[in-house]
Amino acid sequence: MSLDPTLDALPARAEGFWNGRGMRRFRRHKLAVFGAVTIILMTLACVIGPWLLPYSDTFIDIRQRFAPPFAGPHILGTDPLGRDILARLLMAGRISLAVGFCAMVLSMGIGIAVGVAAGFYEGVIGAALMRFVDAMLCFPTIFLLLAISALIQPSVPSIVVLIAMTSWMEVARVVEAQIRSLRTREFAQAAVAMGSSNMRIMVRELLPNAIAPIVVAATLNVAHAILAESYISFLGYGIQPPTPSWGNMLENAQSYLTSAPWLAIIPGAAITLAVTSFNFVGDGLRDALDPRMDLP
User: Fold this and answer.
1) Which of 28, 30, 236, 249 is in the most buried spot, having the most CB atoms within 10 Å?
2) pLDDT at residue 32 above 80?
């Protein structure tokens, strides 16, 4: 048995979540519910919204330059070229959310693979993998992102890979701790006694029982990826115009903070709302899956 009762209870709590008990606990977390609803609505708006608007994100209405929000046919106003802010905001949301989700999937894949291997194979292999993780964590993420992004050709795929390569280490540490605890449990020992291969034990026995912290880490990773893409693009090393993203919309608004503040306020609010919502959902999932919580 594991020496940590918190980790021992995690598999049961994960099962309880999917069976309904944890879901009820999640629904009681008002901010988490707000975050989940907000994420769904933002995703639907970014996917469907551009098809419903009368203007595209590249349409230029030179006579409506710097039109303020709610003062004409452009609901959220226009930018210095007369482009519709709402259309660009929704198209930028497609890019930013896609980068967030794709970077999360890639970083989770790397982190889970390293964490499972390090937790299952103790000794030299596990120690070497975790020392590599520790070495990667020594580099400040923001400086590592900027240094690498300055050396590569900016594009959506390259930004996804870049963010994933600098955000998988925390996932690996979480997964490694879970696998190291679970491998001493009775069900894992029974699989070993039955002659199951190491790969089967890791994939079919241990990994499903470590799903609770992985789900929480995945949710928080999306928020981190969106924020990372935003400040990379804001500094000019990320998504390049004319492709819009929330980060480069902020970068383009720097010169107009006093004359047209809505150019910065609107994408800034979108970033804040998206990142905060994912964090709320992560907090709700953590509380719903936390075995130390004694709520029914």
Assistant:
1) 249
2) yes
